[in-house]
Amino acid sequence: YPYTYANATKTYTLTQNINESIVIISDNIRLDGSDTVISGPGWGYGIYLNGRTGITITNCSVQNFVIGIFFLYSSNNNLTGNTASSNIWHGIRFYLCQNNTVTENKTNSNTYGTGIDIDADYNTITYNESNLNGSFGIACNGSPSTITNNTTNGNSYMGIYVAGANNIITNNKAESNLYGIVPWHGPFTFTNNTST
Predict the structure, then answer these.
(1) Which of 5, 20, 35, 84 could bridge to 91 as Cys pair (CB 3.0-4.6 Å)?
(2) What is the 3-state secondary structure (H, E, C) of 73-90?
(3) How far is CA 193 from the centre of its chain?
(4) What is the pTM of this model?
């Protein structure tokens, strides 16, 4: 890949757009997309990690994959300031992960699936924009997680769906979806949300 590496911070920084997937195979590193674009062929995963911990992914723009950014069996990671839009299925997907932070990402216009799709516990999902997706804006199956200050408008099914116990759902906006914000099971904290 076209990148630079800073050993002191274990940071890989992309230096130009690429047309292939990135697979992260080490722990405790940082991937900085530096606002470059990672484009796919309409299949596969844009950024993929399996069984990793301590990863930060930031400033990446990922498009035209089946899933833009896919975390599998990975915990204690940070996903901040990325764009995962115009993918075939999900923008961002977490499966069987925990203690991850997902903040200030844009996941819009993913064709058939969900902007941010999480099957995991103990996650923080804040200040994300997830609009005009083919199914959900944000779907979180797990507990307890914190879902706050997100915007999910114009999604084909639900703006925000949260299933599990002891989740915190506050200060979110979900407008012009088929259904706005749907918490399932519980108990949960549900305050200051806008759902129309």
Answers:
(1) 84
(2) CCECCEEECCEECCCCCE
(3) 20
(4) 0.96
**What span, in angstroms and rounded, lies between the C-alpha atoms of 12 and 57?**
10
177 pLDDT higher than 90? yes
**Residue 143 CB-half CA count within 13 A:** 15
Q: Kind of pairing, strands 45-50 and 67-72? A: parallel
N-terminal to C-terminal alpha carbon distance within the chain: 44
Confidence of residue 136 (pLDDT cuts 50, 70, 90): very high
Residue of 135, 129, 48 lying closest to 88 (CA atoms): 135
Tell me phi and psi for residue 90, to 5 degrees: -100, 150
Buried b (16+ CB within 10 A) or exposed e, 46-69: bbbbeebeebbbbbbbbbbbbbbb
pLDDT interval class at 186 (50, 70, 90): confident
- Listed residue (184, 24, 47, 177) closest to 114, CA to CA: 177
| Cα 176 off chain centre by | 21
Q: With contact defined as beta carbons under 8 Å apart, do 151 and 131 qualify?
A: yes
The H or E element that residue 181 is part of is: strand 179-184
Other Cβ atoms within 10 Å of 78 Cβ, number:
15
